[in-house]
Specification:
The protein is α/β, with parallel strands linked by helices and about 260 residues long. It is about 50% helix and about 10% strand.
């Protein structure tokens, strides 16, 4: 499978940092809140953010479920000079547990993982936007183009943000940019996961890899090829990938409204 998704990391770094500065200036903000999970997307977004925003104006939120991953990003954050008072490491589990009881998400020994996962994502959003209000800040998103096109996000949860520095880059392109920015290998090599339940991974939920998905999505959305044309190029999971994307396409258009007539 040849790599279709070339990227110029130096040019992207310059373009994205300029974009961040422009957004803040235009909207009249100095401070930025970013949720850092310890994964490659949020860490890459942070590396770009720290090139554009002074450390005293960056607020870090590590909102973990079950186990903190802050050990993976603590050194990065400290090296960047982020003030200690700007770092929030907190468990979302008490709020998750309350929601689980109130909404009766547990049936005997079974848990509705998808509903609970959506609640976790929205709890994180609530905290991020509360911190944004506290610090008079904008919220920096960490979504990539693969997640966006696949609809692999929770509306009003991990999809919520004020600006998105890497949403124009496919996941495999984010990896290339991360290596250029010298994001630590232990973060780059992590298995992609939203960390919503034990054993949960992105690719396990998809039933296909990011590497294959990015190529198929590029052909379908960027090059406007038809499904049969993509399948003829040898992509065995092309139909599964496109169907996954189309099934979630409503997320990009909701809410649906009447026109003004």
């Amino acid at each position: 499978m040849r790599d279709l998704l070339t990227v110029n990391p130096a040019a992207e770094k310059k373009r994205i940092t300029s974009f961040i500065k422009s957004v803040l200036k235009k909207q009249g903000f100095k401070n930025v809140v970013i949720g850092m999970s310890g994964g490659v997307d949020s860490t890459t977004a942070f590396y770009l953010l720290k090139e554009a925003v002074p450390p005293q104006n960056i607020i870090i939120a590590h909102l973990y479920h079950l186990n903190s991953q802050f050990r993976d990003i603590g050194g990065i954050v400290k090296k960047a000079g982020i003030p200690k008072e700007n770092i929030y490491e907190m468990s979302i589990d008490p709020l998750v547990a309350t929601s689980e009881v109130v909404l009766r998400l547990r049936h005997t020994s079974e848990v509705n993982h998808v509903r609970l996962g959506n609640i976790m994502a929205r709890i994180r959003m609530i905290i991020l936007y509360d911190l944004a209000k506290k610090h008079n800040a904008l919220v920096c998103g960490t979504e990539n183009k693969s997640e966006f096109l696949l609809g692999y996000f929770t509306r009003f949860g991990d999809q919520a943000s004020d600006f998105e520095p890497i949403q124009h880059l496919y996941k495999t392109q984010v990896y290339k940019l991360a290596r250029f920015l010298e994001v630590p290998d232990n973060i780059i090599q992590k298995t992609p996961t939203a960390g919503l339940w034990h054993g949960q991974t992105d690719e396990k939920e998809f039933g296909f890899t990011y590497k294959e998905a990015d190529q198929v999505l590029f052909y379908y959305y960027d090059k406007k090829l038809k499904l049969d044309e993509i399948k003829n190029k040898g992509y065995a999971n092309a139909e599964k990938i496109i169907n996954f994307s189309l099934k979630n396409a409503y997320k990009h258009h909701a809410p649906y409204i009447l026109d003004g007539r």
